[in-house]
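User: Please predict the structure of the protein below. I'd like the answer in structure-token form so I can feed it into my own downstream comparison script.

Assistant: Understood. Taking the following sequence of 372 residues as input:
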Amino acid sequence: MTVPIAATSFHGSYAPDDVTFLLQPLSAQHTHTVDDLLEKERLIQSGERHYSEMITPEQPPTAAYLALFHAAVEAYTQRMARDLMHLARRIRAERPGPLTLVSLARAGTPIGILLRRVLREAFGIDVSHYCISIIRDRGLDTHALQHILASHSPASLAFVDGWTAKGTILGELQRRLRAFEASEGVHLPAELFVLSDLAGVAQACGSTQDYLIPSALLNASVSGLVSRSILNEHVGASQFHGCLFYADWQAHDQSRWFVEQVSAALRRNGPAWSCEPLPVIDRGAAALRARDLMAALAHRHAGLDPQLVKPGLGEATRALLRRVPHLLILRDPASVEVRHLVQLATERGVPIEIDPSLALHAVAIIRSLSDG
């Protein structure tokens, strides 16, 4: 079930003051639905359709998988909350002036909501928070940007995402912002702020470590019941990018509950965390680790397309939820951080390879058309 809603007042299932989605909820007849993941993969890799033009309907998580999500929230909320405080402090150091948070749909959405709360409650700064679409090879939603700039200064914009893996989205963001500046004459800060910067490319981050950010485990049910963004022929140039809104999923929705769990940890510990020395972030080491990992995988898997490699817990999870993986590589299959990956791989018949020398907890490799 999808419900059309006025885009400028669209908050998904979140509280209205947490986020404004600059996305256009589409009706079912205005989306290209592909139920078969193998067919979807064929269409993407053959170039017949861009991934943003079609969508595979999501399903609510099973009880067993939801239990893994709740276990992850219990185990990693404290770490996530502390990194959020560190990230907020770094953002204020980088941006002492007016601030407008612009999260990238949809992994950035809960991070943007929580950052807004930290900035308000710990720093006394009330900032606006929007969520907009960015699509690899198709770009940033410039209509959404123009909507934001009608009310906020260009220099105030701070783009937020959940994590980096290879730096692909940052590259897309920077290219599109340069093109926006050339066409509109408006300079926007081409910087990205993330919770976990595995690629070593973000302007600031909470950590460069590959740990389990619980919101990575679920799709719409932890993202305001909003699907990933859609850009097809039904979306006009003067309209926001599209999405599906799973309005009948309220019974399965974890979105508000999740941000409240992290917010509670921030309220309990925020005063202490706001005074402690910030940990040293070595972006160069993270970038080198990412390059070495890709080089090692290319050496071991001849002809490997880098676009089919999904490094880190967040990207590996997304691949197992939405794509057709050929292989899941784990550093330690007994680690609690990969239990959900083991379950997903087992359910979908994805082979698991163990590599104790792996630089990250997990890497997923998408099945190539050449695999047959």
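That's the full token string. The longest strand covers residues 157-164.
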